């Protein structure tokens, strides 16, 4: 029998920690890009995280599927491995050469909105209601403001528009991997996180070598940043995410989507001195409003249960 989610003060502390860590990742990526190329940045992040998670998984006995998977499920696992780490990390690292860390963070809030139409088509029982459709429409306007025209000229880079689309494409990768993950059979969450990182490493390291040549030897400070990116926002945060989902439930976990954009904008402005054009703030408000409306029923049940507990 599945235990009902239990939301405690530790749950709130874990979700706040995840939001701060993931929100700060875009800032740290911006700094790392001053000393390493984007493909090798993504490869280092996934590779270091995979090493850590393999060690943790080994202590758990390398458990994964509860029943032998079909070839189709194995193919889905490989696809998820690329779409949940290697590909979006690369999109983000490349895109952040031309956009601010705040922009990248706000674009990630669109992940939950992109999930809505995908889940409607591919996940049984996940239908788009009028409220969800309204939320999606509002959020879509926010994404359009985020990307559109000269509304968000922040860096003056020639490839800034391409960088914007790369960040949104990364959000699309995360959304697609989330939908595919729902279709997997019963699986050990720590084993899943580890296998996805290993698959991602196998995909991104050869790709980085082909696209950018042999791995460079970064300066010591950049190397430390790369290790931290692999350990904290990738390996540690994925482990913490599993704890939150298993103890407090996936709806509670979705609260992180509201906090990450705010942290990315605040940290980028305070530490890196990034500009805060009105279009960025409008886009963030629209995306978060759309997200809130689309998830209103689930969030209402969540807070009602938390209050009752």
Automatic annotation (TrEMBL):
<dbReference type="InterPro" id="IPR037185">
    <property type="entry name" value="EmrE-like"/>
</dbReference>
<keyword id="KW-0812">Transmembrane</keyword>
<protein>
    <submittedName>
        <fullName>DMT family transporter</fullName>
    </submittedName>
</protein>
<feature type="transmembrane region" description="Helical">
    <location>
        <begin position="12"/>
        <end position="33"/>
    </location>
</feature>
<dbReference type="Pfam" id="PF00892">
    <property type="entry name" value="EamA"/>
</dbReference>
<feature type="transmembrane region" description="Helical">
    <location>
        <begin position="74"/>
        <end position="95"/>
    </location>
</feature>
<keyword id="KW-0472">Membrane</keyword>
<feature type="domain" description="EamA">
    <location>
        <begin position="13"/>
        <end position="147"/>
    </location>
</feature>
<feature type="transmembrane region" description="Helical">
    <location>
        <begin position="101"/>
        <end position="123"/>
    </location>
</feature>
<feature type="transmembrane region" description="Helical">
    <location>
        <begin position="189"/>
        <end position="210"/>
    </location>
</feature>
<dbReference type="InterPro" id="IPR050638">
    <property type="entry name" value="AA-Vitamin_Transporters"/>
</dbReference>
<feature type="transmembrane region" description="Helical">
    <location>
        <begin position="158"/>
        <end position="177"/>
    </location>
</feature>
<feature type="transmembrane region" description="Helical">
    <location>
        <begin position="222"/>
        <end position="243"/>
    </location>
</feature>
<feature type="transmembrane region" description="Helical">
    <location>
        <begin position="135"/>
        <end position="152"/>
    </location>
</feature>
<keyword id="KW-1133">Transmembrane helix</keyword>
<feature type="transmembrane region" description="Helical">
    <location>
        <begin position="279"/>
        <end position="299"/>
    </location>
</feature>
<feature type="domain" description="EamA">
    <location>
        <begin position="163"/>
        <end position="292"/>
    </location>
</feature>
<feature type="transmembrane region" description="Helical">
    <location>
        <begin position="39"/>
        <end position="62"/>
    </location>
</feature>
<feature type="transmembrane region" description="Helical">
    <location>
        <begin position="255"/>
        <end position="273"/>
    </location>
</feature>
<dbReference type="InterPro" id="IPR000620">
    <property type="entry name" value="EamA_dom"/>
</dbReference>
């Amino acid at each position: 029998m599945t235990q009902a989610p239990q939301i405690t003060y530790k749950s709130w502390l874990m979700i706040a920690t995840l939001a701060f860590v993931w929100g700060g990742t875009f800032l740290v990526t911006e700094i790392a890009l001053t000393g390493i190329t984007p493909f090798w940045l993504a490869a280092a992040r996934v590779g270091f995280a995979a090493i850590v998670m393999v060690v943790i998984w080994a202590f758990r006995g390398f458990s994964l599927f509860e029943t032998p998977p079909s070839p189709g499920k194995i193919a889905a696992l490989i696809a998820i491995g690329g779409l949940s780490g290697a590909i979006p990390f690369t999109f983000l690292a490349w895109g952040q050469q031309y956009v601010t860390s705040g922009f990248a963070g706000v674009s990630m809030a669109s992940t939950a909105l992109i999930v809505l139409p995908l889940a409607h088509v591919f996940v049984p029982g996940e239908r788009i209601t009028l409220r969800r459709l309204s939320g999606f429409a509002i959020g879509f306007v926010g994404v359009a403001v985020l990307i559109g025209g000269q509304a968000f000229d922040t860096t003056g880079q020639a490839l800034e528009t391409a960088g914007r689309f790369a960040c949104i494409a990364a959000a699309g990768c995360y959304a697609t991997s989330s939908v595919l993950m729902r279709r997997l059979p019963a699986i050990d969450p720590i084993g899943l996180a580890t296998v996805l990182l290993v698959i991602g490493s196998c995909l991104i390291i050869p790709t980085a070598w082909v696209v950018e040549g042999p791995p460079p030897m970064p300066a010591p400070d950049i190397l430390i940043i790369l290790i931290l990116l692999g350990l904290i926002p990738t390996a540690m945060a994925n482990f913490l995410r599993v704890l939150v989902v298993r103890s407090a439930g996936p709806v509670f976990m979705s609260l992180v989507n509201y906090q990450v954009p705010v942290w990315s904008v605040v940290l980028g402005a305070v530490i890196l001195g990034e500009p805060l054009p009105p279009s960025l703030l409008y886009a963030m408000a629209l995306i978060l409003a759309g997200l809130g409306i689309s998830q209103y029923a689930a969030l209402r049940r969540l807070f009602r249960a938390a209050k009752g507990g």
